Each structure stands twice: as structure tokens, then as C-alpha cells.
């Protein structure tokens, strides 16, 4: 995780000194690599070092940090020059490096390397500098999980990349992997991720041509608030319930948005800006409360230990590819279907996701990593 933050420092500094479009593109590409590099180890570490009762809260804290960072960047951008914002943001990965250097390695990773004594010390540190006797039960459970996952000494180094990719033939890997890929696709659709670069165009089309910058800040703020709500309630309500609830809300809102746009364009109603704005606010808030954030939480816990790192990284990379593809296709889809039917289509995708997750999404909250792995085996 220390190494993965270095591209972030380089990218923001390049952006600060950029004097041409080429340097701007290079800096954005480097920062894109930084996001991708961070995804796998960060969520893997959270999944491995937290207790089952806290895993959802800790993983949702990461989502909240992302939403908060976006909001602060929007706010700073409205007050400061963009170069100053870039310089401020360059400090974030430097702070991350300093903080990460102070925490221990994952206990499960240490066990996989045969360093059980160091793993026990790491658990004691992570649980609040307690005595080994206090974490004895958890330590023995992790040893059993390590043996069950067959991740003894040098297991990760044997066979290299090809062997790690071969893990995806294992049902305990490809079943959660398939579930997550479908989840990411549905979540991005029902939260209108493809339309975000064109949100100004969408607002203008539904009769909200002014104050769009303010509305973008409001949307970002609602996402941040939603991620805080998720962190508070995920342990009590569970990821499955929150998925079904927020997916239902977003699907209904998308269908309503499509119907409103349809009747507006056919002059059945006059332009009423508060209606589309309210719908979009609900979509952004509801999405960050559940369906948009939960797939990232699941990546930290659904894969077996012997391939969690690479499986989580592949999920993160493919999720970004999905975003790229559906965003690149958005204007084409809207030109073919028009805005109203695009939103209705997105709502129908949400209904498909609702049925699929009702049938196949397990509850992982408060479950041990071993219990989750056994479910998918």
C-alpha cells in the first residue's frame, strides 16, 4: 500500500506543473493507475485485519472517505485555483504513506508466510495493544482459516501469475467474482454513473439550465452523507437488505425520471425543476447508502485467502473498465433511445438486479471469512 501511493504523488505534482494537454493527460493516466493499484491491497487489508462485526463499518469508512474527498475537491475547486487544489491533493498520498508505515502487516498474510509469532503481535496491536491471551481465540480461528484456505508458507509465490489466474477456475473464486461483476454493472447503471459526465446536458434537457455547479456540489454532499449513513447502519441492517432496499428505490426513481421526461417532452406537463432535482438527489443519496458502495465492501471479504489480493485487484480493474465502457456508450444509447427511454432502460436493469440479488446475494455481515468462503464453495 505504501508503493501504490507513490503514483498519486507524482500524478498530482505533474498536474500542478502541467503546461500542455499532453502533461495533463499523462498526470490523469498516472492518477488512474494510482486508483487501480490501491484498490486491491486496501480492500484486502481491511478484510483481513478487521473483526467480522466491524468489517462492514471499516470498509464503508473507505467509501465514505472517497465520497468526502470528492466533495472537498469540488468545494476547493469552487474557491481556489485548480493548480492550488492539485498541490493540496498531492499532500494526501504523502500523509497516507506516513500513516501506513505505522501499522503492521495483515495477520493472515503473515500466517501465510509462516510468521505466526509476528501475526499474533499484529493482532494484539490491531485490537488495541492487548495481551496475547485476549486475542487467543481469534488467533486460533485465523490459524484454522489459514489451514482451510491452504495458504501456508510460500503459497502465493509458487507458480507466479499464471497459477494465481488459475484460481479463477475454483468455484469459491469464480462464483463471488461473477456476482461482483454483475453487482458493479447494475450499481453503476442505477446510480447513473454513465451519465455523470453529461449531467449538465441531462439537467438542461429536463428544464434545469441554471445553477448546475451548485447542484453538482449538492449531489456530492448527498453522496457523502449517504456513505456516513451506510457506515452507521450496515452492521445492523446487513448488506443484503441495504442492497435490495436501495436498489428498489433507485429503480423506481429512474422509472419516474423517464416518465417525467417523457410527459414533459410531449407537453403534458409544464417544466417543474424541483421534480427531476428531487429524483436525482434521491438517486445519489440512496446509491451511496447501499447499492453503489456495497460491492466495494464485498470485495474485501468474499474471496478466499490464497487469491484475495489478485481477485480483489482484478475486480477493481474490471469495475473501472465497466465504468469506461458504459460511459463511452452513454451518448450513443441516449441518441438511439432518447433520454426518457434511457432512464427507463436503466430502471429495468435495476429490476433485473433486484431479482438476481434476491436469489443469489448472501448476507456476509457479521460472518467470518471462513463462513463466507464455505458459502461459495
From TrEMBL:
GO terms for cellular component: membrane. It holds the Pfam family Sugar_tr. Signal peptide: none annotated. It is found in: Membrane. PROSITE patterns: MFS, SUGAR_TRANSPORT_2. GO terms for molecular function: transmembrane transporter activity. This is Facilitated trehalose transporter Tret1. It comes from Sipha flava (yellow sugarcane aphid). The gene is Tret1_37.
Amino acid at each position: 500500500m505504501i508503493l501504490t501511493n507513490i503514483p498519486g504523488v507524482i500524478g498530482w505534482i505533474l498536474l500542478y506543473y502541467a503546461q500542455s494537454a499532453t502533461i495533463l493527460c499523462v498526470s490523469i493516466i498516472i492518477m488512474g493507475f494510482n486508483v487501480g493499484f490501491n484498490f486491491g491491497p486496501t480492500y484486502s487489508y481491511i478484510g483481513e485485519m478487521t473483526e467480522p462485526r466491524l468489517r462492514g463499518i471499516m470498509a464503508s469508512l473507505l467509501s465514505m472517505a472517497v465520497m468526502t474527498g470528492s466533495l472537498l475537491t469540488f468545494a476547493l475547486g469552487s474557491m481556489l485555483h485548480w493548480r492550488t487544489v492539485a498541490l493540496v491533493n498531492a499532500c494526501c498520498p504523502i500523509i497516507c504513506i506516513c500513516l501506513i508505515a505505522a501499522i503492521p502487516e495483515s495477520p493472515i498474510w503473515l500466517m501465510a508466510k509462516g510468521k505466526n509469532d509476528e501475526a499474533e503481535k499484529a493482532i494484539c496491536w490491531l485490537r488495541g495493544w492487548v495481551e496475547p491471551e485476549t486475542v487467543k481465540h481469534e488467533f486460533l480461528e485465523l490459524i484454522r482459516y489459514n489451514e482451510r484456505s491452504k495458504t501456508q508458507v510460500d503459497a502465493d509465490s509458487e507458480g507466479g501469475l499464471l497459477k494465481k489466474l488459475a484460481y479463477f477456475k475454483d468455484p469459491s473464486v469464480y462464483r463471488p467474482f461473477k456476482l461482483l461483476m454483475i453487482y458493479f454493472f447494475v450499481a453503476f447503471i442505477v446510480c447513473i454513473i454513465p451519465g455523470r459526465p453529461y449531467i449538465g446536458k441531462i439537467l438542461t434537457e429536463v428544464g434545469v439550465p441554471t445553477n448546475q455547479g451548485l447542484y453538482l456540489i449538492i449531489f456530492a454532499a448527498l453522496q457523502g452523507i449517504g456513505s456516513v449513513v451506510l457506515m452507521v447502519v450496515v452492521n445492523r441492517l446487513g448488506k443484503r437488505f441495504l442492497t435490495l432496499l436501495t436498489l428498489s428505490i433507485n429503480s423506481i426513481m429512474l422509472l419516474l425520471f423517464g416518465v417525467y421526461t417523457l410527459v414533459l417532452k410531449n407537453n403534458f406537463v409544464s417544466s417543474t425543476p424541483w421534480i427531476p432535482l428531487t429524483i436525482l438527489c434521491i438517486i445519489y443519496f440512496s446509491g451511496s447508502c447501499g447499492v453503489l458502495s456495497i460491492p466495494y465492501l464485498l470485495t474485501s471479504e468474499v474471496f478466499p485467502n490464497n487469491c484475495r489480493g489478485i481477485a480483489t485487484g482484478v475486480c477493481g480493474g474490471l469495475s473501472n473498465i465497466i465504468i469506461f465502457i458504459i460511459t463511452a456508450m452513454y451518448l450513443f444509447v441516449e441518441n438511439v433511445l432518447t433520454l426518457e427511454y434511457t432512464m427507463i432502460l436503466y430502471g429495468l436493469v435495476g429490476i433485473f438486479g433486484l431479482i438476481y440479488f434476491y436469489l443469489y446475494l448472501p448476507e456476509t455481515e457479521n460472518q467470518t471469512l471462513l463462513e463466507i468462503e464455505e458459502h461459495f464453495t
